[in-house]
Specification:
single chain; alpha+beta; Methylamine Dehydrogenase, Chain H; four-stranded antiparallel beta sheet; 22 strands
Length: about 525
């Protein structure tokens, strides 16, 4: 080595101006120095390293790049493309570690690379051995501008290529396990890389097989998904058709059921309307209710006719009273005494039942002013009471009291009894036992005053009736020859000129007389 060369080498490997005191040389300087000394030795003169030879080699900074460029420029176009792919495959790009050397197996380089590889190996830029192929100097990654330009041109493509290479290696090592194949975005990026004529040419056979298997698996999964979607759509279509059919059947069934219900209701309505017509002769109130029920079930012509017939007659309302046979009823002048019947359709009970009887009650009557009520029954019981006050028992009848009546002034009470007597009481001063007005040969069943209070009629068994001028005349009798049963009721006309008597059974159920005078009644 000629004098001065060593000092030059020391200056070039020394830290840059401005570096802190004691700082060492930069990383990668020694490999560059080694290659620069080798290049200078190749240019030695008579076994001596000269400064001219050192500068001709490019020095520490340019020796590696100059050697690489010299080899690269000696290649043709195809070989240059092979050299580019070779060096890019020998480099690893990572986000955290930057650019580093990468050792690869020679089989990964593919065919047609050996000749170009030998040229760079011969210049000691690349090493090749049993462990694989790699760049000889780490400094080449930074000192060779051409390599840096290749790296900067497509860093994303290089990362994709390296990912594809690593995946293909893992796929082969796992026995081509489908789980190691590429999917999703990585597969799409690899397809784009392979589709590029320049970048895709750098893929080896193993990488192409791996990419093809990944694409085939993706397509198979897509086909399976499409088949599944088609099956799902067919299933939905079938289920929709079945649902529509079921809905149609349900609609038909519902229609048939409604039709059957209407027919049933119509039949029931007609039957109830017919029963209502039969009941009208026996129980008008129940007949009206059943007619309304028939119309509510179905508005058939029969039900409508029955309902109209119910409204064409007088309104009848059933009043639920005491249990047993109802022997007598009476209505006060105001219609609001024991039952409020102001609303004929909805009678309302006001007070409780009137007591005082131990046997059946056969007769009841209100005084004309509606303040008193008299009632007679079995055992000769006769009660008179003011409404809201205590009851008072009148004595006299020895047997059942069949009828009671107030005179129009409300001052006198007359009772017809089964002891064959008609008795009278002055209500202001009732005497014990009353006064026997007449005693007949048979039980007395009915009594009635004329509206002017001057005439009293009484009916007895054995078809005998009588009339008296009230209060002092003697009685006269009227006989009904065709009646063969007892006289139950007698009533006077509003003018007091006519009487009507009703009998229980016989050829003539009732009879009437025109009263022209106390002793001259005429049969009508």
């Amino acid at each position: 080595m000629i004098p001065g060369l060593a000092d030059l080498l020391l200056r070039e490997v020394s830290p840059a101006p401005g570096a802190r005191s004691g700082a060492a040389h930069e990383s990668g300087t020694l490999p560059l120095l080694s290659h620069a000394l080798l290049s200078t030795w190749e240019r030695q003169r008579q076994g001596t390293l000269t400064i001219a030879g050192y500068r001709e080699s490019g020095g520490i900074e340019g020796a590696v790049a100059a050697t690489a460029d010299r080899v690269y420029r000696a290649l043709d176009a195809a070989e240059r493309d092979i050299a580019r792919r070779l060096f890019l495959r020998l480099v690893h790009i990572a986000d955290d570690t930057g650019v580093t050397r990468r050792r690869v197996a020679e089989r990964e380089l593919g065919e047609g690379v050996r000749d170009v590889l030998d040229l760079f190996v011969g210049e000691r830029l690349v090493t090749a051995g049993a462990n694989g192929v790699e760049i000889a100097h780490e400094a080449l990654l930074f000192a060779w501008p051409r390599l840096r330009s290749w790296l900067e041109a497509d860093r994303a493509g290089l990362r994709t290529h390296h990912r594809l290479t690593a995946g293909a290696t893992a796929w082969e090592e796992s026995g081509r396990d489908p789980g190691t194949l590429l999917r999703g975005a990585w597969l799409a990026e690899s397809e784009d890389l392979a589709a590029d004529p320049r970048r895709g040419a750098g893929l080896n056979d193993q990488e192409l097989r791996f990419l093809a298997a990944s694409v085939e698996q993706r397509d198979a999964e897509a086909r399976a998904t499409r088949r599944l979607v088609r099956r799902g759509r067919r299933l939905i279509a079938v289920l929709s058709a079945v649902s529509l059919l079921a809905l149609g059947l349900a609609a038909v069934t519902l229609h048939q059921r409604r039709t059957a219900d209407r027919q049933r209701d119509a039949a029931v309505s007609r039957q109830v309307a017919a029963e209502s017509g039969k009941l009208r002769e026996k129980d008008v109130a129940l007949a009206n209710q059943t007619a309304l029920a028939a119309y509510r079930v179905a508005r058939t012509p029969e039900a409508r006719a029955g309902l109209l017939e119910s409204f064409s007659g007088p309104a009848v309302t059933r009043i639920a009273g005491a249990h047993g046979v109802l022997q007598a009823v009476a209505v006060a002048g105001d219609g609001r005494t024991l039952w409020n019947i102001a609303d004929r359709g909805h009678p309302v009970q006001i007070g409780g039942p009137l007591g005082g009887h131990s046997d059946t009650v056969y007769s009841v009557a209100f005084s004309p002013d509606g303040t008193m009520v008299a009632d007679g029954g079995g055992g000769g019981t006769l009660m008179v009471r003011r409404l809201g006050g205590a009851a008072r028992a009148l004595t006299g009848p020895r047997s059942t009291v069949y009828a009671v009546a107030f005179d129009p002034a409300g001052e006198t009470l007359v009772a017809a009894s089964a002891d064959k007597t008609v008795r009278v009481w002055d209500l202001a001063r009732p005497e014990p036992g009353g006064r026997v007005l007449v005693e007949g040969a048979a039980p007395a069943h009915t009594v009635a005053f004329s509206p002017d209070g001057r005439t009293l009629a009484a009916g007895f068994e054995a078809a005998r009736s009588g009339s008296w001028t009230w209060p002092a005349a003697s009685p006269w009798a009227v006989h009904c020859p065709r009646a063969r049963n007892r006289s139950w009721r007698s009533r006077s006309a509003p003018t007091g000129r006519r009487w009507r008597r009703a009998t229980g059974t016989g050829a003539s159920g009732c009879g009437g007389w025109t009263v022209r005078g106390p002793c001259r009644p005429a049969r009508r």
